[in-house]
Write the structure tokens for this entry.
Amino acid sequence: MALDRPHMLSFSWNFPPGLPAIREQRTLVTIYLARPSTNATRLRLMQTGWGESDEWVKGYEYFDHAWKSIVLPRLQHACTGTAMDWEEAQK
């Protein structure tokens, strides 16, 4: 939806098939990048546009786990080659 190279990227995101009541709804994901030093990059991720219902709570819990335990560790691994526990990432 928006790109401000190399500082920001935003895009819409929908829910997984396991949440059919809100599957067609979209949230907005915005990723901000900053270089605090020459050998580091800070990433800040925001996901906005949440609704209010039990399904939305389930969706929030799903993405809270997915971003923290799967997506961001894989991104870090891809960018740095750091060690990753692939078994743990599948949970």
Summary: The first strand starts at residue 2 and ends at 4. The chain has two helices and four strands. The mean pLDDT is 90. Residues 2-89 form one domain.
